[in-house]
Design a protein that fits this description.
The chain is built from 13 helices and 20 strands. By secondary structure, it is α/β, with parallel strands linked by helices. The strands form 5 sheets. The protein has a 7-stranded mixed sheet with strand order 8-7-16-17-18-15-19, with helices on both faces. Strands 10-2-1-14-20 form a 5-stranded parallel sheet, covered by helices on one side. Strands 5-9-6 form a 3-stranded antiparallel sheet, with no helix packed on it. β12 and β13 form a beta hairpin. α3 packs antiparallel against α4 and α4 packs across α7. The chain starts with a strand and ends with a helix. The model has no long low-confidence stretch (mean pLDDT 95).
Amino acid sequence: MNKSVSVIGGGIAGLSSAVFLANKGFRVTLIDASPKFGGRVYSFFDKASGFQIDNGQHILASWYKNTFDYLKLIGTFDKLSFQKQLEVVFADEYGSRYSLKASRLPPPLHLAGGIMGYKALGLADKLAIVRLVNRIKKNKYSESDLKSANTDKLFELSTQTDKAINYFWKPFIIAVFNAEPSNTSAYLFANMIRMGFIEKGGSELVLPNGFLSDIFVEPAIEYLKQKKAEVILNKSVSGFKFNNDSISSIILVDNTEIKTDFYVSAVPFFNFRSLLGESYSKYFSSLNELHSSPIVNIHLKFDKDISHIFTSSFIGLLGTSSQWVFKVTNDQVCVVISSAGEIAEKSKEYITDLAVGELKICIPELIGFKVTASRVIKEMRATFVPDKESLRNRPAAKTSLANLFLAGDWIDTGLPATIEGAVKSARSCVNEIEKQLAIS
């Protein structure tokens, strides 16, 4: 294989695109404007607080096939910890703890068994959840109905109780979609229910066993170097040169011109416009209809060992603005606020006080523990909003420009903005490029 490909953007979509292409024998050039690769899956040492930080916290799922293939290629698949069966611990605003643990029955009965043992809910709440899952399993809602509605409409049609929504559905939806039910496509939601709760082997959670850069990023760069790929940091792409309906080259900010046979743009949708210039409205105007949703991560270091309090790797928080808390080390946690909305606009001091206060309300064992260091990371445009309008505006991997392909968790993968969505988009790019070569 002598064909060459430029990949623009070194987040997980760009990294996995480059790795999959290099594995297929393409000559790859990977370019990123940042001084580091990884996007939302990079780690760094924070000098001010004195601890190692993951830019964002990520839970994987057992149906992340493309992600697992990527990690196997770069040699870090063994750094994942797989649950044997779904189990999530929750703590509510009254200081009570609950366990949602799936039974060993086959899907979807395993979920029904877990819900029946989930003591945060009453019987009416549990029956409402089972009713909705059963309707999705039996295809009671048509595809057109699902595509024309957001998930709050499904809740209304299936008469979900307030507690079922707030203590079961919303933690799941906000974690997976980074959006409220009213801004989450019913079609995407139903797909996630099928993949995660109904299909066999899809519901178990998978956690990275270590910092993200050590698992997703650095080994990928080493792999690419072994494959003789060219890896370029600190160089942004100022634009494309066009030749009719194809790309002839890309121009870097220092006026370096790079010519390859194919081009993969793996930059976020809100940055993509600058690459196209005047051609953007001709080819990609629908991207104007995509919108962003923020995520805030609050990293906290305590003055004492917390391992006896955090007996699981993460805890869901109920009835609070904070939704999840991850144990990073024996004295360090990360609190996550997804779909952060107005909270993301607040000062970092306000956000830290909010997170610490809610943490101690839900987990009163932390009262008396002092926070010795903190770091707030705001991702103001972390993901796209996956509402019903987004379905018709997410582009395919193959574009109308003959040799330009798109990768990113925002393209039309059928998935929300997850690591798996990003890696699946990368694989789609490779498949489309190979298909085009086969035809020519």
